[in-house]
Amino acid sequence: MRHNTAKHSRPGTLEMPTKKLTEKFNEFQENAKEILKDENRIEDLLLQARQKLKELPAGGDKLAYIPELILMIHSFVRGEYTAISMPHLVAIVAALIYFVTPLDVIPDTVPGAGLLDDAVVAGAVVKWCQDDIDKFMIWLENKRK
Description:
Layout: H1 19-35, H2 39-55, H3 60-63, H4 66-77, H5 86-100, H6 116-144
């Protein structure tokens, strides 16, 4: 998957607002490809993401999608929901890795700013994967009926 930070990127590309975020996210995408090969590592990542969510005072609108992303990946790993493109799957896992990693572009320990980059990454991934997320939510709603 090619990332482009230019203002006029190709349709369908995932954009990050800064070069530094793009570079860091690309690293996490490579990690995501490896983690996706190991169900135990994926489950551990999802557990870490759930735990971090519990510790947050408020997630904001961009981080509010994290529970749905966790559920989507969990459903994929269990073989329950597989109608997601591989580039989107990798991007979502990379966003979750970014979210649980405390030392990213803006370390999570920086008061008031530490989660801003997490929210930017999550927001960019959600925007890019919105169709797959919407389809998953419809599938989930139908499954619960």
